[in-house]
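Sat 14:20. Reprocessing the chain from the morning session after the first attempt stalled halfway. Input below, unchanged.
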Amino acid sequence: MSKIQNAYSKIVVIVPLYICAYTLGAVWLLFDGWLNQFSSITWLWGGDERTQFPELIYFLNFVIIGSLLGSALLGITSFHRYKAIEKSFEVDHIWGYFFLPVLALVVGILVFALIQAGLFVLAGNVSSEKSPESATLGYLAIGGVAGYNWDVFIKKLQELSVSVLKSQSKE
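Finished this time. Tokens:
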């Protein structure tokens, strides 16, 4: 085996480990959010474990976690397809896998902004007055769908930006 092939086989092993690491981190944060209202991460903003996030940030966290889990699902299935089924995994693919969590964070934030702006509407029982747990599930689900289908989300975002810019130019 050549040195290049040996280095390649070592790099490829990192991808599933990386996906597992951020997936487990997202699952841990999910349960922390449900059980402790994200008390384990309030220190990031200068608070202590008794500090609670405002409701807006609380729900944003669930969209981001959903987006991370959706992108993890995409990463796992994609890695399996390219490595095990098609046997066409290339070193260039690694960059996409490493940027998936960052992409998921951005997609999650933008999806949440679109929901809050009323440009994207969730149906069902997601009102925080009725059931905060139900609302977290709705936000988690829409984040997961957007994270898994990030390419579709970006196309829709492009269409939205074109329509917004066209309507602004008519004014």
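The helical segments are 3-36, 55-85, 93-117, 132-148, 150-170.
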